[in-house]
């Protein structure tokens, strides 16, 4: 493998790993947010509620 091959492989592995991690993180966040009761979902509250 040439030097360019090593660079491409290194960047590819790094970016691929980060993409897989980001995808798993988003999916886990979605799964966990679905478990939060409606009464505790603060991000859905009205802006004028005064709790912020």
Characteristics:
52 residues; mainly alpha
Explain the overall architecture:
- It is a single chain.
- The protein has one helix at 3-34.
- It has one helix and no strands.
- The model has no long low-confidence stretch (mean pLDDT 85).
- The chain is mainly alpha-helical and 52 residues long.
- Helix content is 62%, strand content 0%.
- The protein has a domain at 1-33.
Topology of helices and strands:
Blueprint: H1 3-34
Brief account:
With 52 residues, the chain is mainly alpha-helical.
Give the helices and strands as they follow along the chain: H
Q: Note the gap between the termini.
A: 57 Å
Helicity range of the residues? 55-70%
Overall shape: rod-shaped
Low-confidence stretches: none
**What is the total tally of β strands?**
0
- Provide the β-strand percentage band: under 5%
Indicate the mean pLDDT.
Answer: 85
Radius of gyration, taken over Cα atoms and rounded to an integer in Å? 20 Å
Number of helical segments?
1
What does the main sheet amount to? none
Q: Structural class, from secondary structure content? A: mainly alpha
């Amino acid at each position: 493998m040439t030097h360019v091959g090593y660079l491409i492989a290194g960047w590819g592995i790094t970016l691929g790993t980060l993409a897989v991690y980001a995808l798993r993180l988003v999916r886990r966040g979605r799964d966990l947010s679905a478990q939060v009761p409606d009464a505790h979902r603060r991000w859905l509250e009205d802006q004028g509620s005064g709790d912020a």
